[in-house]
Design a protein that fits this description.
Largest sheet: 3 strands, antiparallel
Protein name: Tyr recombinase domain-containing protein
GO molecular function: DNA binding
Keywords: DNA recombination, DNA-binding
Number of helices: 17
Shape: elongated
Strand content: under 5%
Order of helices and strands: HHHHHHHHEHHHEEEHHHHHEH
Organism: Acropora cervicornis
Distance between the termini: 72 Å
Length: 383
């Protein structure tokens, strides 16, 4: 990234002129107040020679930001096939995160008449400052930094990305000091309370399909400490049934999947719990598979919706639990914290949850189990 505004040629660009933003801005304005781009109408529109147009099909199928990035790579000489592969490096969750930031960045550059690909370093930092002034958290601003790093040009012999620039790193340290990120929870809920409730539900065979589904989802989540994404990907076509276990192979990449990393985390095993049949995930799974055999038709995903039409359950459907205090992802923290309290080894916790570093568990998931006030209230009520 240059230290001053210049007509530096971008990679694969013979003209080095500013990007053609009006069409992109018109699309962005559909979801963002159009008044925020009025300032641009008074200035001359940037030259369109930097980035080639994409087809109407691409524009319709992709978000504005992804279409913008596609144009950048095409302009750098990438073939359409190569560009498609490059764009697959962004997971859907990253695309959604980056989309909002890139939209704001394009509008910001339009108002400032700044080059959105090769801006002055101070302009890009001013953009991050504007996000700080909006009250965004450190993690959100850091996400915006990553989004800019993916699209901004940088000098060939200086810093690999925008985020590696020393001024940007220093700025982010300042944000960290002024708006220090805090964990979502200082404590987590007591798994025993949930297990007591599940146990009180009785035999799985006597439950309604709704209750059976909810019971199985919670038991799988607790016994595997997996994300909702992993639960949604469980597929009966990739399932091996044993006498005391069900083993699932996941054929899709997970959040923690990385090139060169072992694929052991793509195997999820449900083990029987012989001490209490009502809490046995294998028993619940067997009953669930038998109950849903005629309902699922050709659907092979393990979890299907309990209401008609019985189709595969989405990740959000699986995660839809009471979130007044704790989010669905808190099951992961509660289960692993309970396992630690029960003296499970750190190695076993990490392997089950799919973590490669003990620091991940210690920093983000290891929480004191929150004790309810029911015991204290009972004691005091006797006085």
């Amino acid at each position: 990234m240059p230290g001053k505004n210049s007509s530096k040629q971008s990679r694969g660009d013979p003209g080095g002129a500013l990007l053609d933003l009006p069409k992109l801005v018109s699309q962005i304005a559909e979801t963002i107040d159009s008044s925020s781009i009025d300032d641009h109408s008074q200035g001359s529109p940037p030259d369109s020679s930097r980035v080639p147009e994409t087809s109407p099909i691409e524009e319709k199928a992709e978000s504005v930001s992804l279409s913008f990035v596609r144009r950048l790579y095409k302009n750098r000489g990438f073939s359409e096939r190569a560009t498609n592969i490059v764009l697959q490096s962004w997971r859907q969750s990253s695309q959604k995160q980056y989309d909002a930031h890139i939209r704001k960045w394009l509008l910001f550059c339009t108002k400032r008449q700044a080059d959105p690909i090769c801006p002055i370093i101070s302009v890009a930092v001013d953009f991050l400052t504007s996000l700080y002034d909006e009250g965004l958290s450190y993690s959100s601003i850091n996400s915006a930094r990553c989004a800019l790093s993916a699209i901004l040009e940088s000098p060939a012999s200086a810093y690999p990305t925008f985020g590696e620039h020393p001024d940007v790193k220093r700025f982010m340290k300042g944000i960290f000091q002024r708006r220090h990120p805090l964990p979502r929870y200082c404590k987590t809920w007591d798994v025993n309370l949930v297990l007591q409730y599940i146990g009180s539900m009785g035999n799985s065979q006597e439950l309604s399909l709704k209750d059976l589904t909810l019971k199985l989802v919670m038991l799988v989540a607790l016994t595997t400490a997996q994300r909702g994404q992993s639960l949604q990907l469980l597929d009966t076509q990739n399932m091996v049934q044993e006498e005391t276990a069900y083993t699932f192979m996941l054929n899709s990449n997970l959040k923690q999947s990385k090139p060169g990393k072992s694929t052991s985390d793509l195997v999820i095993k449900l083990n029987a719990y012989p001490y209490d049949r009502n809490l046995c995930v294998v028993n619940a799974c067997s009953v669930y598979l038998a109950r849903t055999k005629l309902l699922r038709g050709s659907e092979s995903r393990l979890f299907i919706t309990h209401q008609k039409p019985h189709k595969k359950a989405s990740r959000d459907t699986i995660r839809r639990i009471d979130i007044n205090v704790y989010k669905p992802h808190s099951v992961r923290s509660a289960a692993t914290s309970k396992a630690k309290a029960a003296n499970a080894s750190l190695v076993e916790i990490m392997q089950t949850a799919g973590w490669s570093s003990a620091a991940t568990f210690a920093k983000f998931y290891d929480r004191e189990i929150e004790q309810g006030s029911s015991f204290a209230d009972s004691v005091l009520s006797q006085s």
